[in-house]
Design goal:
3 helices; 0% strand; globular; binds zinc ion
Length: 77
């Protein structure tokens, strides 16, 4: 199975417990959908399409975030 690395803390998701996964996803959603927050953080590469999150508009960001969440949840089953 392909390893998914966390865009928030950069560790592999299989090193996260469920609580940590939810925390990191929540943080990622906040950053991805909130450019003001994002500009004060380190550069984050979108785990879905591998572009800079800044190259996304709000709608693209949500699409990528949703895809990514689905991927992580599917993988943890
Ligand atoms: Zn993480
Ligand atoms: Zn993307």
């Amino acid at each position: 199975m392909e390893k998914i690395s966390c865009p928030t803390c950069r560790k592999a998701f299989d090193q996260h417990d469920e609580r940590q996964t939810n925390l990191c996803l929540e943080k990622f959603i906040n950053i991805a959908t909130n450019p003001v927050v994002y500009s004060s953080t380190k550069k984050i590469i979108c785990p879905t399409c591998e572009k800079d999150m800044l190259d996304h508009n709000q709608r693209q960001a949500m699409e990528c975030v949703n895809k990514f969440i689905k991927q992580v949840k599917d993988n943890s089953d």
